[in-house]
Amino acid sequence: MTENEILDIFRKHSALLEGHFVLTSGLHSDRYIQCALVLQHPATAEALCAQLASKLGNLGATVVAAPALGGVIVSYEVARALGVRSLFTERQDGVMTLRRGFTIAPGEPTLVVEDVVTTGGSTRETITAVEQAGGNVVGVGSLIDRSGGKVDLGVPRSALVTLDVKSYNPADCPLCKSGTPVVKPGSRSKR
Ligand code: ZN
């Protein structure tokens, strides 16, 4: 699938909205992405994640990890395509941690995946959690990179679609200045 074909899938499922949105961070943006609306369809999730897995398969990972909740399905389907384990991290007292008895072998090559990379914040936290568990992060993947490719996580990174989505402080938001009504979507997939 090309980037445009993937974007058409997102639009078809109302997972990519264009307009004027207030994000959970409080910033305003002209586009809003909710991957869960695409990932609710297992066959589509499987196909998208298989394509992401094909970009990351040469890194030799034997486990895939993702931050819950947004990354769980992506991790699971990428791991399925690669024939490896899928783990997730979650916050405990605000700190991203591997729980539930999940273990990573010392030095085990690990992929960290996400649905959307915006600032890379939750991906970075997951990388730290994997490293603290003894894993060696060999690459990072996401369905969507909305940083325009600018986020640098210090390891090879792939995304199916790269978008350069601007976000604005409300005080400087050109959409506010133009008088466009602002929409607050139900919840956001990524911080
Ligand atoms: Zn605005």
Describe what you observe in this structure.
With 191 residues, the chain is of the alpha/beta class. It is 29% helix and 30% strand. The strands form two sheets. The chain has a six-stranded mixed beta sheet. A three-stranded antiparallel beta sheet has the order 1-2-9. Helix 5 links the parallel strand 6 and strand 7. Helix 3 packs across helix 4. The longest helix is centred in the first third of the chain and has 15 residues. It is globular and about 55 Å long. The C terminus is likely disordered. Zinc ion binds next to helix 6.
Based on the model shown, name its key terms.
6 helices, six-stranded mixed sheet, alpha/beta, three-stranded antiparallel sheet, 191 residues, disordered C terminus, 29% helix, binds zinc ion
Largest sheet: number of strands, sense, barrel closure: 6 strands, mixed
Give the tally of β-strands. 9
State the end-to-end CA separation. 27 Å
How do the SSEs run, as a string of H and E?
A: HEEHHEHEEEHEEEH
| Physical arrangement of strands within the biggest beta sheet | 5-4-3-6-7-8
Beta-sheet strand percentage? 25-35%
The helix/strand class is alpha/beta
Number of helices: 6
**Overall average residue pLDDT:** 94
Ligand types: zinc ion
Computed over alpha carbons, the radius of gyration is 17 Å
Outline type: globular
Approximately how much helix is present in the residues? 25-40%
Low-pLDDT stretches are 187-191
